[in-house]
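Audit log entry. Action: structure prediction of a protein-small molecule complex. Ligand: zinc ion. The ligand was supplied as SMILES and no pocket hint was given, so placement is left entirely to the predictor. Protonation state taken as written. Sequence taken verbatim from the request; no trimming, no tag removal. Recorded inputs:
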Amino acid sequence: MTGQVNSDAYTPQSGDPHISVSHYDLTLDYKVTTNRLSGTAVVRGTAVASTKTIALDLVGLRATKVRVTGAKAASFRQTDRKLRITLPSELAPGDEFEATILYAGAPRPRRTRWGTIGWEELEDGVLVASQPTGAATWFPCNDVPADKAMYRISVSTDAGYTVAVTGREVSRTTRGGKTTWVYESVAPTATYLATVQIGRYTTEQVALGSVSARLIYPQPLAARVHADFADLGQMMSVFEETFGPYPFEDYVAIVTEDDLEIPLEAQGMGIFGANHIDGVGGLERLVAHELAHQWFGNSVGIAAWHDIWLNEGFACYAEWIWSERSGGPTAHAKALTHYGRLSLLEKDLLLGDPGADLMFDDRIYKRGALTLHALRLTIGDEAFFSALRIWTERYRGEATSTPEFIALAEEVSGMALGGLFEEWLEQRELPALPAGAVVAPVTAARRRGSGRG
Ligand SMILES: [Zn+2]
């Protein structure tokens, strides 16, 4: 979909640099009790380089039949990571293709250096959390963050379960004890952000200003969910005011029955474990973090994983902004606290290119947020927030990179910022925070009714 589609140095096994996918049409049939998935994937795209084969990522599931445009049955071969399809004739750059893949198996998460990721059975349902290379555990795909596409995903499963999928629900039909849920996503979506969530959940519509949203959760957690998401509307309006309009059609906050290690973002969705919802807002910053990813990471994505700070630094900074705006410590106070903590930790990480092993290190989040705070102190609040809003508008639906952000910050502020970003992104030492600037809260602090924080 987006122009630049190279294999990624952090995930060199993933993706096919010859192609760009524009649309995935997935028709899935899933039995919860036996964890059996069978699917048909129609993958449409364009060649970006001459090629006689396309190599899609597919892990742990068996392709049984493949058809491509211009041939009834295509020859294919499968390794433990790739489905290689031989085309009837060579594609030239710009040529379109359509591959239909029938596949099946017992999906399970894959083991990676970042832990186990992908399609995962819960106690009584399914969770899909794919960052960065888990999408291949449930559909054949070009699994690189730069190659965003549209989706139509149909999931048939036992009636009685709620199925939440990336995109907007377009139909739901029940027949013979099975319900088929069809979702369509018209916003360009990275493969790792496509998701399926299945469970015995209650669904509740909530309005977050002009954004329609759903809370999806196990009924016994209702009271805790209501308490912990009570501020979601306020959070949405603070973020819309600060970052620009919410970039998708709707938002879903889903709480699984199981505990999860960390909450996760998917396109238009925040996924929380039962353990993250305590009924007293103890992990409110995580609610803010996952919501902020809709602007930073999901709508404005990254073209390569080495720029992960553009996702995590911004989402972490959004936590501080929410703190400031909801009567907690100011972003400046948060920055000073985390600066102090970071200064005690080892300085062996390059924020602008941390390496695959450290891409989800907590220092990426905190130093990333501090980089933004240093920028704010340098260029002032007006230019800083204006740059954030232009960033989310100009690069909406795209996959971007650090040089584009630096160029935008320079354009908006009229200042040369190469030195600032070089210190924060390309050196291991922790630079001093720019001194002297006065940082006023974004607006007057709001008093909380609950007396928390
Ligand atoms: Zn995050």
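Audit: result stored. The two ends are 44 Å apart (CA to CA). The chain has three domains: 1-194, 201-294, 301-426.
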